[in-house]
Amino acid sequence: KDQLCLPEIHGVRCICRYGVADEQSQQCKLPPTFLVYAEGRTIHGVIPSSTPNYYPDAFPPIHTTGIPTALAYDADRQRLYWADRTKRSIMYTSLVKFDAPQVVTEGLTDVTDLAVDWINGNIYYIDAGKREIGVVTSNGEYHVVIVSVAIDKPGSLALDVEEGLMYWTDFGFIDRLEVSDMSGD
What angle do CA 148, 164, 90 make, to 5 degrees? Predict the structure, then answer.
């Protein structure tokens, strides 16, 4: 159903409905590179293509019950995280198992960005409504606010995990780019 394998002179050639074919296992898998975006209540992943107007699906569409506002992908764990404006939470699903979405943390107001610490498996977020930056473990067990002072209108967030640095934008009275270590100091 998600793949079609056809015999050829020198073996088998498989065509995938989602993702790319692994020539050794003859199974469909996630491509090494893909673009993720939200449209309404649905999250899509597409594979970049050199053919104009042709963007094959990297994975089946993820239909959410809320409105996704920020997206982040953890390639090591093959998990897609998103902030859900309606549920005021951070959610995730596996892009291998496609299990039901799981809640990482709740009680947020307006998450504008997410970033994955792929070494430690933590999820960093900006909650513009609360004017804070927080971090939560990928299983939601631990959650801490790491920046909550001298922050006016936070927008985007980026991590340099190998250097242990966190960058964010603040578009308050004076627009600026801020930096700290990943503990918020």
Answer: 55
